[in-house]
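FORM 12-B: Structure-to-Sequence Request
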């Protein structure tokens, strides 16, 4: 199954090495830097950010030193994914990264979001870091927003997975040893029964044809518990499944 971006471009097209890894040579303060720049990963707790981290490390795009995560103040859980902060802490420890948590109110206005992300970015810059790695796949408006936001703060974005064919990418994630479960499902796009299921080949086969294999259009979100980006796997179990604010959440807990 091939996916296209919003502008109609084929996200499965074969890109040349210079196109796919255009961030390999990055200018910092107008000086070409021959080694990978230090960066934070925008860590959602899910598979896309996890695999973006893995690819950034493996291909030499960045030396990732920290993880930036947004959480809900009301629930103390990862924003949108609903992952408990206790499991998030286990993830970041297994990644060997420095955590930076941004607490957001619920609901959260765009002005508050940008102000708090801006404060976090100032903390990142104070550590001599000016790049953030994202797991975005093909949504042009999201990428443009991130790039504008960071440029205004004197920072740059890196997208290791950009325009990868999502059907191939999903299976490459699984083949790498990545273990993830669906923690949030949009019931308007995907059946409630998918919440809590493992992200594996059987799940990919079971997805409706109009659902992106990586859930890039918000059909589902995941939490990762094992993979090549972790020093050791995290044992997890699926707990209660609830519906809240128009989404179905599966409570995945660390054993």
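FORM 12-B RESPONSE
SEQUENCE OUT:
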């Amino acid at each position: 199954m091939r996916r296209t971006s919003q502008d109609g471009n084929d996200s499965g097209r074969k890109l040349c090495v210079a196109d796919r890894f255009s961030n390999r040579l990055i200018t910092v303060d107008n000086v070409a830097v021959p080694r990978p720049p230090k960066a934070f990963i925008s860590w959602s707790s899910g598979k896309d950010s996890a695999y973006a981290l893995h690819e950034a490390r493996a291909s030499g795009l960045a030396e990732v030193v920290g993880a930036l995560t947004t959480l809900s103040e009301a629930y103390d859980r990862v924003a949108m994914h609903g992952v408990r902060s206790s499991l998030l802490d286990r993830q970041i420890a297994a990644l060997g990264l420095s955590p930076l948590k941004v607490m957001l109110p619920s609901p959260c206005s765009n002005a508050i979001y940008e102000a708090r992300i801006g404060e976090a970015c100032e903390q990142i810059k104070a550590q001599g870091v000016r790049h953030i790695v994202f797991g975005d796949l093909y949504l042009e408006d999201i990428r443009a927003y991130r790039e504008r936001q960071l440029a205004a703060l004197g920072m740059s974005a890196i997208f290791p997975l950009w325009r990868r064919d999502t059907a191939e990418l999903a299976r490459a994630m699984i083949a790498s040893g990545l273990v993830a479960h669906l923690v949030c499902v949009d019931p308007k796009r995907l059946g409630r029964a998918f919440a809590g299921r493992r992200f594996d080949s059987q799940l990919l086969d079971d997805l409706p044809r109009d659902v992106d294999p990586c859930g890039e259009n918000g059909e589902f979100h995941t939490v990762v518990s094992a993979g090549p980006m972790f020093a050791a796997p995290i044992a997890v179990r699926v707990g209660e499944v609830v519906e809240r604010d128009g989404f179905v959440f599966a409570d995945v807990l660390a054993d």
